[in-house]
Amino acid sequence: MACWVVMQDGKAVFIQVSMAANNSPSALEKEQAHPILTAMAEAIATTKRYAVVTGSNKGIGFEICRQLASKGIIVVLTARDEKKGFEALEKLKSDGLSDHVVFCQLDVVDPSSVASLADFIKSKFGRLDILV
Ligand SMILES: NC(=O)c1ccc[n+]([C@@H]2O[C@H](COP(=O)([O-])OP(=O)(O)OC[C@H]3O[C@@H](n4cnc5c(N)ncnc54)[C@H](OP(=O)(O)O)[C@@H]3O)[C@@H](O)[C@H]2O)c1
């Protein structure tokens, strides 16, 4: 038997999956989770995560920004060219992702640009969870 605590409609739900003899899930039983499990599930669901995507004013990087931001992750869209970067940022903002995207200039072959990005992340977020 396996158990999970998941968030459903803003509430933590404890799910038990009974395994049949052939080892496949045979039943789903849902019940109210223990308060401690509920608090843990809520903490995980509400913890902010921060990502940086390099070369993300277009192509794969841009799409990765969109997908991460639409999952609620705070994304730093970066580009070596500021104008292109801000244009890309505006596209994501107009798609309703304003609260989850910021821009920072980054040329990956310029050490001073890399150091500036590190300072930006440290001062604004205090940590980084995802680097693409
Ligand atoms: N497209 C595919 O199907 C595919 C498949 C497998 C692997 N890849 C690889 O994935 C990567 C991205 O592919 P893509 O199709 O998204 O390419 P892309 O559309 O050409 O985008 C590349 C991005 O990298 C940026 N960039 C280049 N040099 C940079 C630098 N020194 N500092 C910061 N940013 C820089 C570009 O900025 P600018 O606009 O300023 O040039 C652009 O934003 C490439 O390495 C590619 O080989 C792509």
UniProtKB/TrEMBL annotation:
Keyword NADP: yes
Domain of life: Eukaryota
Keywords: NADP, Oxidoreductase
SUPFAM superfamilies: NAD(P)-binding Rossmann-fold domains
GO molecular function: oxidoreductase activity
Pfam entry (one): adh_short
GO cellular component: membrane
Signal peptide as annotated in the record: none
Gene3D superfamilies: NAD(P)-binding Rossmann-like Domain (3.40.50.720)
Family per record: Belongs to the short-chain dehydrogenases/reductases (SDR) family.
Name this polypeptide is given: Uncharacterized protein
Organism: Camellia sinensis var. sinensis
